[in-house]
């Protein structure tokens, strides 16, 4: 019963019903035509028997009876002209119950007579009149019983019925496969997109991309895309309006960090006569540019108009290099070393500015943790790729996260690991990675150090 509640099941059932209905509409005229052919064949055989009598002057009773049996009739009348008739006759078991003139029968008459014959179970004797073959006379008339006629019609009807059943099953099966391929699979694909989007409506990568070649389905996909896009914007608007205070704190946190980096560059420019000043100038420009960009998007965030990630391909090693060089300036004389294990040709498709913010927050948290421990340490950033995922790790040899920080990880104002920390760095990083359709997780944290892992889906991002 569950199968019949599916689109495929109902289509299969309706197809079988409609094909059978069409076969029934064909069946009735076919049986009527078969009855007419049967009677005509009896007239032809009776005409041959009559011609045998005509060719012989005298014929014995035994031969006459044999001719009638071969013709399948009781009596034969062949009128060749107005003056002469040739007759073969035998005793009839019953009186004649009806006369059928095939010379003037219409399709409607033939169909009604055929239905009546199938309906009548009692054997009767009927008279049949028709035109002789090859114009061998004016008319031919025979009498015969209906048992053989009815049996032949039933046998023919059953063969037609079985053939119709086979045709119905084959046709329904072919149409079922066609509907599965043309309609059901595309519909299931749309449903799959809807389920995927429902699982994470804030992920812009899960918005459906219309691809169907069927006009109606493509229109449905385009409408769904528009609805999902509007819904994603609406969800962001409600979330950000509800957390406006937290949003401003997040922006202020990143703005403070970026401006701190810029200030360090400025201090270096002011105090040093080193020729390296020219090399540092681009770094200063980049930091100030990031600060300006973040300021420009502050109001947009409050209005829930902050754009999603701007995806482009870039070398990850360059972004990691900028982050680490900035942190090296902040380290000063602290005994902290940095390590990079990034394939030089590893290309990410993501928002480079947002990835800079994510890595900067993670590296900065690691630096602060090592400094607070009072011991030397190392911060390492590594990355590799699989067939469907980019995997990044930020590790440190610090003291590990406190239990409270691990319990409230990624929660603003609760997940801070250092005294005076707000915990916003991890919250911002997790939100930015989530916007890319990826995940930020704590892979390990103990007395040997802490490792954060970033997973970015390659397939989902490349389709965006």
Automatic annotation (TrEMBL):
Record-annotated membrane-spanning stretches: 12-32, 160-179
Superkingdom of origin: Bacteria
Matching CDD domains: HATPase
Predominant localisation class: membrane
Gene Ontology terms: cellular component: membrane
Reaction it catalyzes: ATP + protein L-histidine = ADP + protein N-phospho-L-histidine
Pfam families: HATPase_c (PF02518), HisKA (PF00512)
EC assignment: 2.7.13.3
Full protein name: histidine kinase
Species, as recorded: Roseovarius bejariae
């Amino acid at each position: 019963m569950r199968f019949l509640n599916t689109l495929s099941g109902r289509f299969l059932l309706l197809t079988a019903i409609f094909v059978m209905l069409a076969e029934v509409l064909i069946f009735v005229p076919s049986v009527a035509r078969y009855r007419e052919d049967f009677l005509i064949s009896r007239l032809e055989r009776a005409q041959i028997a009559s011609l045998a009598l005509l060719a012989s002057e005298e014929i014995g009773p035994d031969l006459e009876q044999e001719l009638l049996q071969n013709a399948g009739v009781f009596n034969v009348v062949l009128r060749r002209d107005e003056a002469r008739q040739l007759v073969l006759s035998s005793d009839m078991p019953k009186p004649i119950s009806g006369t059928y003139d095939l010379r003037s029968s219409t399709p409607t008459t033939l169909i009604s007579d055929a239905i009546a014959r199938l309906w009548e179970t009692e054997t009767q004797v009927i008279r049949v009149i028709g035109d002789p073959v090859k114009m061998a006379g004016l008319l031919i008339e025979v009498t015969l019983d209906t048992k053989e006629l009815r049996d032949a019609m039933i046998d023919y009807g059953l063969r037609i019925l079985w053939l119709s059943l086979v045709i119905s099953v084959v046709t329904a099966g072919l149409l079922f496969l066609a509907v599965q391929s043309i309609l059901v699979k595309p519909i299931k694909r749309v449903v799959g997109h809807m389920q995927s989007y429902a699982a994470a409506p804030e992920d812009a990568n899960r918005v459906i991309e219309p691809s169907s070649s069927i006009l109606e389905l493509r229109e449905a996909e385009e409408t769904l895309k528009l609805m999902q896009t509007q819904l994603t914007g609406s969800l962001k608007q409600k979330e950000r309006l509800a957390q406006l205070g937290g949003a401003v704190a997040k922006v202020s946190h990143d703005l403070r960090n970026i401006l701190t980096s810029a200030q360090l560059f400025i201090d270096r420019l002011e105090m040093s006569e080193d020729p390296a000043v020219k090399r540092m100038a681009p770094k200063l420009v980049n930091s100030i540019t990031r600060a300006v960009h973040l300021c420009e998007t502050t109001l947009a965030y409050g209005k829930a108009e902050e754009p999603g990630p701007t995806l482009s391909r870039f070398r990850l090693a360059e972004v990691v290099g900028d982050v680490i060089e900035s942190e090296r300036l902040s380290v000063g004389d602290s005994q902290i070393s940095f390590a990079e294990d990034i394939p030089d040709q590893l290309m990410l498709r993501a928002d480079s500015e947002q990835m800079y913010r994510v890595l900067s927050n993670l590296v900065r948290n690691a630096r602060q943790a090592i400094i607070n421990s009072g011991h030397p340490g190392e911060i390492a950033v590594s990355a590799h790729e699989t067939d469907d995922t980019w995997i990044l790790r930020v590790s440190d040899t610090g003291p590990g996260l406190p239990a409270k920080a691990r319990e409230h990880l990624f929660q603003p104002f609760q997940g801070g690991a250092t005294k005076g920390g707000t915990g916003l760095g991890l919250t911002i990083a997790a939100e930015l990675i989530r916007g890319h359709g990826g995940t930020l997780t704590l892979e390990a944290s103990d007395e040997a150090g802490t490792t954060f892992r970033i997973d970015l889906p390659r397939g989902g991002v490349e389709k965006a």
